[in-house]
Design goal:
The complex is a heterodimer of chains A (275) and B (171). Chain A is built from nine helices and seven strands, in the order H-H-H-H-H-H-H-E-H-E-E-E-E-E-E-H. Chain A has 275 residues and is an alpha+beta fold. Chain A has a seven-stranded antiparallel sheet. In chain A, helix 2 packs across helix 3. The relative contact order of chain A is 0.09. Classes of the chains: A alpha+beta (275), B mainly alpha (171). Chain B: GO terms for molecular function: DNA binding; sigma factor activity.
Chain lengths: 275, 171
């Protein structure tokens, strides 16, 4: 425990608030506070500053974290977040680095210009790090569906969660994959209902969930053998969406949610165990 | 080198830590763009040195200390570039112009927090908001425990004054 005797009273009372004092000093300050109104006023002031500051610091947690940084950490090498900044200004860098960067940027612009026709005709997002397994056409379709339907706040699902038994019967028959709607309540996701989609020309099921912040998460699956290893979870990011896909017993599955959600992989593992 | 599964867990933990790490960085840099760059550099370094993280204690303390060291280095570089010989923590007053440029990124209360003299917000955050002990805070920030104590009480009194001013203005 700390010794604060001889220090300013506000310093001692501050340590008193934090429980950093030994029993003797605490007793001494208790006695002082009991008899001295100025000391009590000072303690109240310190406490009000603590409460005000704590509330203010909460707001910082609501600021968006740069998406490129999340991507870089989750996916490791292969992406340069400095080219994908959400925010703008950067720390001053050593001048020796500037010219190589300008040269590299010029070369990149030249190559991009030359390839513009190809790029415009392609659906591939060059800024995105893509995994080979993520190139499958059905993925494109379910990501597109997720993007479109997750914005339909009033018509998020085709069949609501209240009809879970009907959803299981209907989609199992339509898609050809027997399943149980995973209960992800303990993971903070509420089941909202389901849709039937078309992915790569085949029927696909989409189970829709919402978290406490109303962010939409979906689990999509369809019948197919695409060569993916059983139980191998592959995590990729497409723009603002994160995907975790896996394959089991002749069916391919994918969990989609905000790419900034660090728990997406865990959610997918939980869903895979329950579905 | 860490096994792949452990490395994945480390990366996941780091992503989970990002909002708090960014908040801590804001208390050091006091503007959003520098904070984002600092967080990025800190994460790069943490991943590169993840083999040194033994899993004991709080990951955030380890990353915070790394972040603080990077910022001290950056401040030193800036001083060399600008020709200033002032010590790192002698800059007691906020660079109001620089902060004003970034005002669009922060709300009024955040601006008040960031306007506190250097060193106060970090100590307040670590002890009062995140519950680190005085000793842990001193280790993270590389300062004596006595300095933690004096900065903390000063921060609390300044925040109380801000609250009072804010209340009077609204009345």
């Amino acid at each position: 425990m700390l010794q604060t005797k001889g220090l300013a009273l506000e310093v001692r009372l501050s340590a008193y608030i934090d429980g950093e004092l030994g029993e003797n000093e605490r007793t001494e300050l208790d006695a002082l506070l009991a008899r001295d109104e100025e000391a009590r006023t000072l303690l109240d002031k310190l406490k009000s500053g603590s409460a005000f500051g704590s509330g203010a610091f909460e707001n910082f947690l609501h600021d968006p974290v740069p998406l490129a940084l999340v991507r870089q950490i989750k996916q490791g090498p292969g992406i340069n977040p400095k080219t994908e900044r959400v925010t703008t200004a950067s720390l001053p860098r050593r001048s020796t680095r500037i010219w190589p960067r300008i040269l590299a940027a010029s070369t990149a612009l030249f190559l991009l210009g030359g390839a513009a026709g190809f790029i415009l005709g392609s659906a591939t997002d060059l800024a995105e790090p893509t995994h080979e397994a993520d190139q499958r056409p059905w993925m494109d379709d379910i990501v597109g569906s997720h993007r479109v339907y997750s914005r339909q706040k009033e018509h998020l699902v085709e069949v609501p969660a209240a009809q879970s038994a009907e959803i299981e019967r209907w989609l199992a028959a339509s898609v050809g994959v027997n399943f149980t709607v995973p209960d992800l309540d303990r993971k903070g996701l509420t089941f909202e209902g389901a849709r039937l989609l078309v992915a790569n020309g085949k029927p696909a099921a989409q189970l829709v969930y919402r978290d406490r912040d109303a962010e939409v998460f979906t689990i999509s699956f369809l019948q197919q053998g695409d060569g993916q290893q059983p139980d191998a979870f592959i995590e990729t990011i497409r723009g603002d969406l994160g995907l975790v896909s896996w394959h089991r017993e002749g069916a391919s599955f994918a969990m989609i949610g905000p790419s900034s959600d660090p728990a997406l992989h865990d959610l997918a593992e939980t869903a895979a165990a329950a579905i | 080198m860490r096994p792949a599964a452990e490395m994945k867990d480390f990366r996941r933990d780091l992503v989970s830590l990002l909002p708090k790490l960014r908040r801590f960085a804001m208390t050091l840099t006091r503007n959003a763009s520098d904070a984002d760059d600092l967080v990025q550099e800190a994460c790069e370094r943490a991943i590169a040195r993840s083999h040194l993280w033994n899993g004991d204690g709080r990951l955030e303390s380890w990353v915070y200390a790394m972040t603080r060291n990077l910022w001290v280095d950056e401040i030193r570089k800036r001083k060399v570039r600008s020709g200033s010989a002032a010590a790192v923590f002698e800059l007691d007053q906020l660079n109001v112009e620089a902060t004003a440029e970034k005002a669009v990124y922060v709300n009024q209360v955040q601006k008040m927090i960031l306007s506190m003299p250097e060193g106060l917000a970090s100590v307040f955050l670590l002890v009062n908001v995140e519950g680190h002990s005085y000793r842990e805070t001193a280790e993270i920030l590389g300062i004596p425990v006595g300095t933690v104590m004096s900065r903390l009480s000063t921060a609390r009194l300044r925040l109380a004054a801000m609250l009072s001013e804010s209340t009077e203005r609204r009345a």
